[in-house]
Specification:
The protein is mainly α. The chain has 10 helices and no strands.
Length: 225
């Protein structure tokens, strides 16, 4: 039981922070729905990642560091998260003000991160699963959450500010964040943690600005599509 709690609680802590920082809190059923979609996309991500890993590894001379960063996991996983935002969240009536983009962006990412964490801790065959759980609590979990925050931020800009370029940035920014995270996790883990620190500093500044604007309103925005 303790191992399971260490595996899932880091994701829930970050998720609850964004949920309860929202002045007009999203319905729990909507959060749960998006979180579950995040979990579910782990399944196709696993199979597609496996196929692409095999293709790049056996058919080309591409360095393994690039395969494990830019060419496979970041590409596949961020694309699937993007699809959830575009085809599920975009149509939800509860996605009705700018800050919701960041809330739902981090929710889908943490859904993915939670099930992925369960896989790594319980089913990957590591000799010390508790150590893996602790390690990922301060690396992979905040990494996925950071990707989701930025994906949600640019998706919010696409929906509420300007269509031009923002949909592309919705995918590209988290993709590069994810890819560089994976790359430096192998090449230089200190740079990986620096990316997390700088990334979260920027993300929280952006989130705080949206919260400040939210305080000026008495009611939520109505989404204009």
């Amino acid at each position: 039981m303790y191992l399971l709690l260490v595996t899932i609680i880091p994701s829930l802590v970050i998720l609850f922070f964004f949920m309860y920082s929202d002045r007009f809190r999203e319905p729990r059923k909507s959060i749960l729905k998006v979180f579950i979609y995040g979990c579910l996309i782990c399944i196709p991500a696993f199979f597609v990642n496996t196929i692409l890993d095999s293709f790049w590894f056996y058919q080309t001379k591409v360095p393994i560091e690039l395969i494990g960063s830019f060419l496979v996991p970041a590409l596949v996983e961020e694309a699937l998260k993007f699809l959830v935002l575009f085809y599920v969240v975009y149509k939800m009536k509860d996605f009705n003000e700018p800050i919701d983009g960041m809330v739902y962006g981090v929710t889908v990412s943490l859904g993915f991160a939670t099930l992925e964490n369960v896989y790594y801790v319980f089913f990957s065959g590591y000799q010390d699963p508790l150590a893996i759980a602790y390690l990922r609590a301060f690396s992979a979990i905040p990494g996925h959450a950071l990707d989701g925050v930025f994906m949600g931020y640019f998706f919010m800009k696409y929906v509420y500010v300007q269509k031009r370029n923002n949909l592309m940035l919705t995918f590209l920014v988290p993709y590069f964040l994810h890819a560089y995270y994976n790359y430096f996790a192998v090449i230089n883990y200190k740079v990986m943690y620096l990316e997390l620190i700088v990334g979260w500093t920027v993300a929280l500044i952006l989130f705080k600005k949206l919260k400040s604007k939210q305080k000026e309103k008495r009611i939520e925005y109505e989404k204009k599509l």
